[in-house]
Protein 1
Amino acid sequence: MREVTVFPSRLCGEVEVPPSKSAAHRAMFCAALAEGRSVLRKIAPSDDMLATLGAVRAIGRSAALSGDTLEISGPCAAPSAAAVDCRESGSTLRFLIPVLGALGIPAELTGRGRLPQRPIGCYLDCLPPHGLRMETAGGLPLRLSGKLTPGEYALPGNISSQFLTGLLLALPLLGGDSVLRLTTPLESAGYVDMTLDVMRAFGVQAEAVPGGWKIPGGQRYRAREYAVEGDWSQAAFFLEAAALGGEITLRGLRPDSTQGDRAALGLFSRWGVRAGWEGGRLSAAPGTWRELSVDASQIPDLVPALAATAARAPGRTRIYNAGRLRLKESDRLRAMAQGLAALGVPVEEGPDSLEITGGPVRGGKVEGFHDHRIVMAFAVLACAAEGPVQITDAESVSKSYPAFWADLKRMGGNIDGLDLG
């Protein structure tokens, strides 16, 4: 556990937003399922990307990462079995399970941190009736054998979109048509839209039908060159910095992105941040605060940045429909509530909500819970605190944004405790 101390400072300047981790996972899987050579540009070597890179190689594909460019070629000789360490990446695990089933590759999947305890139960319900044998004591390690068959797959819409994405990626490979049916209304719809967008780019289609999707079987992914767009989830931390008094310019974002977390711009603008596009860059600066209430059902990854910003926003901010945050890399509702309380911020934690009364933020010590988004949210808030803030688990940003501390320092952050170069 590495600990940093962040001192009050004003963040200003321009930053290249890191590539979208969500889009990169999807592009890597599509390229791995294609015949021939794909070139993926703007791949950040974060821990989650390295987990998916290991998965790509484990299913018999050649993959070479040089700088931010990844070449994937395949298929090579199909392995007789695969052993995959998914590290702490929920996307790697949940995308890979049905893909292995579609390819008929026996496998053992392991993981680290909280991943072995994170839910996979809906797969245990819907995949074995379609031919995939799954041996588990309830999480990881997980042993797979058998081969998926086409048909109707039913999943709740209020689970992680990663389960839906895994099936959308895999079902086109089967010999017949399939239907993916939702049994409850869809949440995190933006992530599913992103999946379908990346699949189309690699030549594979799924047809939206009432209550789900029809997926024609016998399709083939086509190799191609693909550039990964900037990550709106990470951009939220810099919009947080703007709301808290900084003047920030962001490069690499698509204003027309299908990422659900593009909603960050609208939310922070409603809160009073002055933001605008010019020459492909997004500039953001503080404005006049307005009260905000946030339904987090479609944007769970934005909650840490929003909750941290609420600590300084006048009045009460309510964030609700956020129960799924308890199943992330940490219990993010509990982590944010405890961290805010440690800095003197009045906060009420409900089963699926936070109510935060903004005002001064004192110095203190915050637990990072080995969660990249918790650490980044409090690091930016610490710059606007009245005194220094110690944050544990500083190294956890490597899961999604290895350059975070260097970028924060370059924009004026005063940080002690890490060798940032």
Protein 2
Amino acid sequence: MAERILIADDETEVVDLLELYLQREGYEVIKCADGALAWETIEKEPVDLAVLDVMMPGLDGFALCRKIRQQHLFPVILLTAKVEEVDKISGLMQGADDYITKPFNPLEVLARIKSQLRRYRQYNPGVLEELDLRGLYINRTSHVCRLYQSSLELTPREFEILWYLCENRGRVVSSEELFETVWGEKYLDHNNTVMNHIGRLREKMQESYKNPRFIKTVWGIGYTVEA
């Protein structure tokens, strides 16, 4: 499956130009005209790298980068017309991996995207893994998930929950551990977020509530996928 590059910029000509060069190289491009739409897309679809304009209306590139870093590790490249060094430093401090000023050479942007993807794959070898457990196939690189050859349409968080449980199969994972790993936030008592997501996962997998085949509840402790 082609790697997916999200481009968020309110300048249509910039987005279309980058899309042209990226598609020639075999990448799939997701175009967003503002930061809010980009964040909504990231919450619903797998993304391998994001290119964000700093000066977008509403949710700007800096704010969007901060939100991404709270939950995702994929590379982020910022685009901006600002050339001051302090702006570049500010962008990198928000969690960006690279910073490119406008106007730019699209071939340079393409080269930097390739470089960031190579570096990400090199230092995150786990993203290249795939698991096949009794008819459940899950690939973290492509975000493909199939159950008995039928595709499962999972949200990014549902996918990460299922991956983490499968990766830690044979071990009981607490709701607290799942929440802090997937959401990247401190777990608070009486938080039903994990339970609700597990419920939706089971519905999509057509799991029996009383006798699930994959995600089993260990009452008072957490959840487990049997080895």
